[in-house]
Amino acid sequence: MDNKWYETSGKNGEVVISTRIRLARNLEQYPFPIRCNAQVKQEIAEKVKDAVLNSNSVIAPHFSCIDIDNIDAGEKVSLVERHLVSPEFISEKSQKYLLLLDDESVSIMINEEDHIRLQVMREGFDLDKAYEQASRIDTLLDERLNFAFSDTLGYLTQCPTNLGTGMRASVMLHLPALQSTKAMRKISENLSKIGLTIRGSYGEGSEPTAAMYQLSNQISLGISEKTAIDNLKNITKQIIAQELKTREALAKQLSVQDTIYRSEGILKSARLIACDEALKHLSNLRMGITTGLINNISLDTINRLMVEIQPAMLIRQNGKPLSSQERDAVRAELLRNNFQN
Amino acid sequence: MDNKWYETSGKNGEVVISTRIRLARNLEQYPFPIRCNAQVKQEIAEKVKDAVLNSNSVIAPHFSCIDIDNIDAGEKVSLVERHLVSPEFISEKSQKYLLLLDDESVSIMINEEDHIRLQVMREGFDLDKAYEQASRIDTLLDERLNFAFSDTLGYLTQCPTNLGTGMRASVMLHLPALQSTKAMRKISENLSKIGLTIRGSYGEGSEPTAAMYQLSNQISLGISEKTAIDNLKNITKQIIAQELKTREALAKQLSVQDTIYRSEGILKSARLIACDEALKHLSNLRMGITTGLINNISLDTINRLMVEIQPAMLIRQNGKPLSSQERDAVRAELLRNNFQN
Q1: Nearest chain A CA: its distance from B272 CA (Å)
Q2: Residue A91 forms contact with B (CB below 8 Å)
Q3: Which residues contact B122 (CB under 8 A, 6 or more apart)?
């Protein structure tokens, strides 16, 4: 397998797992997907695929096209686990395609809520580079497709909350210290006043697993991409500083050290482990690494494992179906192999 | 410190931690302790001390005398933790003394329920040797003291349940497999029909900690010492066989292996650990060692630690008082030092 973007940690990797830019675009001459029949959606898909795969861009040959309607359930779920598609995208069959770059850093969902959902992901805290790359691909698409655009409103999208720039910029943050000191609620309230939102990873409504939070801009109308990104960037810097300071204080507590070292002990020795439990321990280990309590494990390893231990990823790697207990055994083995010596 | 009897494991050590013989004796010319005033009890104590310490026996110089009324609370509790005295023995001041052999295998409580409670403990399954040694010391005492004895009843004791031989023979058994398969209740019911009793360690009424059970004879009247011991011996052999067979079956289960290896991981990594939790993991480790799942740890280490991690033992070893959290930290450190590498 090629190396994937999520296998390395990036800038401010102690807190920021990844940066994501998502652009929503629609083709001018067609209704939004919800109002298209299968034939029209297929027509849209062909146009978008052609615009990417047959473009003169140097990255065009590095894209592959996944026909979502014709892959098995496990493969679908593993796309969600890698944050490449939304859970909604795999929930029903209807001319859905995913254009995916080799290293999985760029994914283009076709016929999701909008005709096009372009997503760029990068390791660590890297909003500028992520936006730059998203823009480049946006321009590439724009050259060959007519985007629905209004001079007064900006890009037109099915949901009004995406109108304007059509952009969501977000960072995935690991906030174990702020979470454990119950600071998240207050932070969340303050953020909403300035047009940002923070929520547990894996999209809206979910509970924070392993202290992972997605911080994103909420406003796309009447604001430039640059302003939105700068806003997110400044707040992220403040949260990073707050998290690191809190971690430093917590790491001096024997009870916190106990929790971290126990997590290491369990990951090195368990023979059966459920995904949620493993994520909790990996989260503790991450905090241990960044506070200097644990030295012989890299953040890269943790980041990679947080993806690889997901159920569908395990099945994908295993090459054949696994029962729940078999999965827990394979997961425990994978973790032991990564941590023992 | 000298080596103590509990620092090694003995015959059938995979199941039998220790063997104990206890003889209750009283001096003919005095009432039972409960009916003696302080002065009379002191007189009794002097006679018993003299009989042991000033005897011509080769072991006499290896006994020391502890004045229970004049040691601190921690030292008292640590005597209970080492199973050298009963919890009742340390609960009130009243001319109580403990004569203790260097290696702590022989202890003589003076002015407990009876004037004399002689106890011999040995590692592993060793009823004959333990009884032989108890008899030898009993004879030694008998030469210099007049025991209350009735030709029809045998030795006279305060509580009628000890009348006759005045003997309790017992084995401390580690029964994690039988416990986990819920077999103990049925076993207990059957044993009571044949004059034996099984209960959690640390005396009557307590719950089994770390799957430790004390199996003992209940009948002392109208039965010879030899018959009582043979009876206990046969039943113990059956329980050992049953426990080992059940362990073998359980050890094939991945969930059991998981529990055992996790316990090892936690003992190697915790920074804070309460006594009960540590005992639970040590019990799991013991089962892991005897089923071949864990190879680099000896039963001797486990047996020794099960005593050393007790609260008062930790404080005694530490030489100064410890708060509850400090104790948990010292205990975790002691365990890590014993298990790492």
Answers
A1: 6
A2: no
A3: B5, B10, B18, B19, B20, B105, B129, B130, B133
